[in-house]
Write a structure and sequence with these properties.
Radius of gyration: 17 Å
Helix content: 40-55%
Shape: elongated
Oligomer: single chain
Strand content: 5-15%
CATH topology of the largest domain: Glutaredoxin
CATH superfamily of the largest domain: Glutaredoxin
Bound molecules: FE2/S2 (inorganic) cluster
Distance between the termini: 27 Å
Structural class: alpha+beta
């Protein structure tokens, strides 16, 4: 149960918002950090905390691609397929990843390491083609860079080629 394990964090998140329901996204992110995806139980619990209905939570989870409805691999690779990245080769990048990983978008490798997804613009349009892996961005990608990133992640769990993270920055306003 999120409420038992993360009481302090949940209270802190709720304290940021005059309207309780505005805390929906941070609570969903907290739930996803716990399980790797947002479980049905977590959705019901969050609905109860925020005094909204489970379908309202579900609608939000299905709207945002950064929220997962099912388990993902240790490394969730999200390739931007929007226009600016498409113009500089995101299709080629995606094809390369499909070959290297042996999976199509929406799937996870058998070893549980990599999940591949296609997503809409990730707001790094000037440095495409790009992808996000977990919280990190990788930009101006080439096939050689992708090979290095995959090898780095398998070997070290991280890669020096990352340029992020830009998601969910630490709060600096106290
Ligand atoms: S179009 Fe790819 S990051 Fe915006």
């Amino acid at each position: 149960m999120l409420r038992e394990k993360y009481k302090a964090e949940i209270d802190e998140i709720l304290s940021r918002y005059p309207l309780r329901r505005s805390a929906l996204l941070p609570l969903l992110y907290l739930a996803q950090k716990e399980e790797g995806y947002v479980t049905e139980a977590a959705m019901k619990e969050i609905a109860s905390i925020l005094k909204i209905t489970p379908p309202q939570v579900y609608e939000t989870v299905t709207f945002y691609t950064m929220l997962n409805l099912r388990p993902v691999g240790k490394f969730h690779i999200q390739v931007c397929k929007s226009l600016m990245c498409a113009l500089v080769g995101s299709d080629t990048l995606l094809g390369w990843l499909e070959v290297r990983l042996g999976i199509k978008p929406g799937n996870t490798t058998k070893d549980g390491l990599f999940t591949l997804s296609k997503v809409e613009c990730l707001a790094a349009c000037g440095t495409g083609p790009m992808m996000q892996i977990n919280d990190d961005y990788y930009e101006r990608l080439t096939e050689e860079k992708v090979d290095r990133i995959l090898a780095d992640l398998k070997r070290d769990g991280t890669s020096s080629l990352k340029s992020g993270p830009f998601m969910w920055p630490e709060r600096t306003d106290g």
